[in-house]
Design a protein that fits this description.
Elements (H helix, E strand, L loop, with lengths): L3 E4 L5 H12 L3 E5 L5 H12 L3 E4 L6 H15 L4 E4 L14 H29 L2 E6 L12 H21 L4 E8 L5 H14 L3 H9 L11 H12 L10 E4 L7
Parallel strand pairs: 1-2, 1-4, 2-3, 4-5, 5-6, 6-7
Helix pairs in contact: 1-8, 3-4, 4-5, 6-7
The structure holds nicotinamide-adenine-dinucleotide (NAD).
Length: about 260
C-alpha cells in the first residue's frame, strides 16, 4: 500500500513543491489550501505521477475544520502516514502599528493549526505505530527580525511544539521535526518584498539585497527542491531516530 501524506497549504509555494516530490516518490497526496484551482492542481499531479489524490480547502483558522480535514484524509486514503504542517501567512509591521487581528491570525494559522492537525492525527498514527510529522517553521523560528513580531513568535512556538511531540511520539514510532528555511521565492515572499519595501522605505530590489539576503551567508534564495529533499528524508521508514530536531536550510543565516 502506498503511504499517504497530507500537506497543508500545498496548492502554492513550498507546499506544492513538496506535494509534487512526494507524488513522484509514489505517495498518495491530500492537497490542501485556499487557492481556487486546488482540485485542478491535485488532479494534474495525481495524473502525472499515477497516485491517488484528494483536495480540501479547510480553513485553518477553525479547529473543527482542521479535525475534519484529518478525518477526511483518513477516510479517503485509509490512513495518514506523513503530516506536513506547512501552511502559513505573513504580515510585516512595526510593533506599535501591528493590527491585533493580523497578529491573532498569524498565531492561529502558523502555530495553533500545527497543534490541532497533529493532535487529530495523533491517535491514528499511534494506532498504526507509524507517523512522520514535519513542521515547516522558518529561520525565524531560530532568529528574530524586526517588524515580524507575530511570525517570529509563531515560528519559535512551532519549534517548541516539535520537541514535545518528538518526546511523546517516540514510543509509537512517531517522529516530529522542523525544517527552517531562509528566504524562498514563493507568493508569500513576493508579497513580503512589497510590505518590507513600505516598512523600510526602500525599493523592492533594495529589500531583496539589503534586508532579505543580507543575513544569509549564501546570497541566494533557498531552492524549494532542497526543502523537498529534506522532507523526503524525514518521512522515511528508516528515519526513526531523527526526531525533535530543527533543520536550518538558511544559507548559513543561523550559523552567525
Ligand atoms: P504561500 O503563500 O505560497 O503558500 C501558503 C499556503 O497556505 C497556500 O496554499 C494558502 O492557501 C495556505 N493558507 C494560508 N492561509 C490559510 C488558511 N487560513 N487556511 C488554509 N490554508 C491557508 O507560502 P510559502 O512561502 O510556500 O510558505 C509555506 C510555509 O513555509 C509557511 O509556513 C511559511 O511561513 C514557511 N516559510 C516560507 C519561507 C519563504 O521564504 N517563502 C521561508 C521560511 C518559512
Amino acid at each position: 500500500m502506498n503511504k499517504t501524506v497530507l500537506i497543508t497549504g500545498s496548492t502554492s509555494g513550498i507546499g506544492l513543491a513538496l506535494a509534487k516530490r512526494f507524488a513522484k516518490k509514489g505517495y498518495n497526496i491530500m492537497f490542501h489550501g485556499l487557492e481556487s484551482n486546488g482540485q485542478e492542481i491535485a488532479d494534474k499531479v495525481g495524473a502525472k505521477h499515477k497516485v491517488k489524490v484528494g483536495f480540501s480547502n479547510a480553513n485553518l483558522l477553525k479547529s473543527d475544520a482542521i479535525e475534519y480535514l484529518i478525518a477526511e484524509t483518513i477516510a479517503t486514503f485509509g490512513g495518514l502516514h506523513v503530516l506536513v504542517n506547512n501552511a502559513g501567512i505573513q504580515f510585516v509591521s512595526p510593533l506599535e502599528d501591528f493590527p491585533n487581528e493580523k497578529y491573532e491570525n498569524i498565531i492561529a494559522i502558523n502555530m495553533n493549526a500545527v497543534f490541532y492537525a497533529s493532535k487529530a492525527a495523533w491517535i491514528p498514527m499511534k494506532t498504526q505505530q507509524f507517523g512522520r510529522i514535519i513542521n515547516i517553521s522558518s529561520v525565524h523560528g531560530l532568529r528574530a527580525s524586526e517588524f515580524k513580531s507575530a511570525y517570529v513568535t509563531a515560528k519559535h512556538g512551532v519549534i517548541g511544539m516539535t520537541k514535545v511531540m518528538a518526546l511523546e511520539g517516540a514510543p509509537y514510532n512517531i517522529t516530529c521535526n522542523a525544517i527552517c528555511p531562509g528566504y524562498v521565492k514563493t507568493p508569500l515572499v513576493e508579497g513580503q518584498i512589497k510590505d518590507q519595501a513600505k516598512a523600510h522605505r526602500m525599493t523592492e530590489d533594495e529589500v531583496v539585497e539589503k534586508v532579505m539576503l543580507v543575513k544569509q551567508a549564501v546570497k541566494a534564495f533557498v531552492p524549494v527542491k532542497a526543502i523537498a529533499d529534506m522532507a523526503i528524508l524525514l518521512a522515511k521508514d528508516t528515519s526513526t531516530t531523527i526526531t525533535g530536531t530543527s533543520f536550518a536550510l538558511d544559507g548559513g543565516w543561523s550559523a552567525q
